[in-house]
Every structure is written in C-alpha cells, then in structure tokens.
C-alpha cells in the first residue's frame, strides 16, 4: 500500500474515531479492490433508496478523476492522434483514466421490465449474473443488511467468484454472512447509517484512485 494511502486511512481514523475499529477492513478492501482492478476486474454496486443514490455516487467518483489527475494510457493517446489528428487534442484533453464500475440501480428500462415480468428482488442478481466475472467486486449497500434484492445480488456474486463487500449498519444483518468482508457503520437509524457511509466510500474511492493512478511520495 502506498504511503499516501496510509496517510488517508490515518486521517480518516482521526476524523471519525468512532469508525477507527474498521482499520483492518478498510485496508483489506482497498488492497483487494486495487489488485482486482489491476487484473482487469470491475466493480458492481447496488442499494435501495438513499443507498441507490450512494451507488451512483460511488460509480461517479470511480469513472472520472476524483482527487488526483488520471492520465489516459500512452498507447491510446498515440492511437487517437493517428486516427483523428484534427480532434485528438480536444479528446485527449477531456478524457481521463477511469476505474471500471457499474451502478446496478441505473438500468431503468431493465429494472421495470424484469421487476414486472419476473421478480423485483432478483433484479440486481440478474445483472450480476450477466456482468459478473471472477476478478470483479460486488458492493452491496443496505442500512439494515437485510434488503432481499441486495442479498440475492451478493449470493450470485459469491457464486460467480466475485469479491463481495457489504456496507451496512451496526448489526450487519444477513448481508454480514454472505459478504467476504463487511463495513458496518456504528448506528441503527437509517439516516445516521447513511451519514457514516459517505465518508467510508469516499475514503475507499480516494484510496483506490491513488493506488492505481497515484505516484509514490
């Protein structure tokens, strides 16, 4: 783990001492995700309500620059210049390195059709079955840890050989038993749990970004 990532984790613990006990879990998650992304993996994220919004927030931070510059691949840079010499400079200026991630809550047409025709509680699982591969990561957000659609998604992810992360409230709920590792915020009320989830996933997104794109200090 890079030194700057270590600094981020220590700053997080200073700012949120009530979650300092998650030190091991955070380090494990950051290392595992970074390793899988470098091997060609991607991240699938889902949740309900506020956690659905968090799913999109997470993906938004991963697909584009979040905290540091992310230059595009040098060979791709050359290819753009070769194929589109008149437009390449604008394209190169705007394109940024990304971390492959999909928000499973965003497929409105699919979710409405599958939910109506088949089963709402299996809608995330169906997407995991189609998208999921062995080096991928599944992140399920559930303040209770008991959301059936998230649980089914996690179960299919396990069966596909994916790394399953649960981000929950204090008890961890049923998601605790399905996940490889759990981040359980120290609260029970939904709004409080969600308030803790934001700094947790911001730290993870920043740390992964630095592990993949950052230079060692």
Task: Walk me through what this model shows.
With 217 residues, the protein is an alpha/beta fold. The chain contains ten helices and five strands, in the order H-H-E-H-H-H-E-H-H-E-H-E-H-E-H. It is globular and about 55 Å long. The model has no long low-confidence stretch (mean pLDDT 97).
In a nutshell, what does this entry contain?
The protein is α/β, with parallel strands linked by helices and 217 residues long. The protein has ten helices and five strands.
Class by alpha and beta content: alpha/beta
SSE string, helices as H and strands as E: HHEHHHEHHEHEHEH
| Distance, first to last CA | 12 Å
Which percent band covers the strand fraction? 5-15%
Mean pLDDT level: 97
Please bin the fraction of helical residues.
40-55%
Describe the strand arrangement of the main beta sheet, using strand numbers.
2-1-3-4-5
Write down how many β-strands occur, each being a DSSP E stretch of 2 or more residues.
Answer: 5
Low-confidence runs: none
Question: How large is the radius of gyration?
Answer: 18 Å
The rough form would be described as globular
Main β-sheet, in a few words? 5 strands, parallel
**What is the helix tally?**
10
């Amino acid at each position: 783990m890079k030194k700057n990532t270590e600094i981020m984790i220590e700053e997080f613990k200073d700012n949120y001492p009530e979650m300092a006990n998650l030190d091991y879990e955070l380090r494990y998650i950051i290392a595992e995700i970074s390793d899988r992304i470098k091997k060609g993996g991607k991240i699938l994220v889902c949740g309900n309500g506020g956690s659905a919004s968090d799913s999109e927030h997470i993906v938004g931070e991963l697909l584009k620059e979040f905290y540091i510059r992310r230059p595009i691949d040098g060979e791709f840079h050359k290819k753009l210049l070769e194929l589109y010499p008149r437009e390449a400079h604008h394209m190169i200026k705007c394109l940024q390195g990304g971390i492959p991630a999909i928000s499973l809550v965003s497929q409105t047409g699919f979710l409405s059709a599958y939910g109506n025709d088949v089963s709402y509680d299996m809608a995330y699982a169906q997407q995991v079955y189609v998208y999921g591969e062995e080096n991928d990561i599944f992140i399920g957000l559930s303040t209770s840890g008991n959301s059936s659609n998230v649980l089914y998604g996690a179960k299919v992810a396990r069966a596909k050989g994916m790394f399953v992360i649960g981000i929950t409230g204090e008890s961890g709920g049923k998601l605790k038993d399905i996940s490889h590792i759990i981040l359980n915020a120290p609260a029970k009320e939904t709004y409080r749990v969600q308030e803790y989830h934001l700094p947790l996933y911001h730290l993870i997104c920043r740390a992964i970004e630095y592990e993949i794109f950052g230079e060692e200090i």
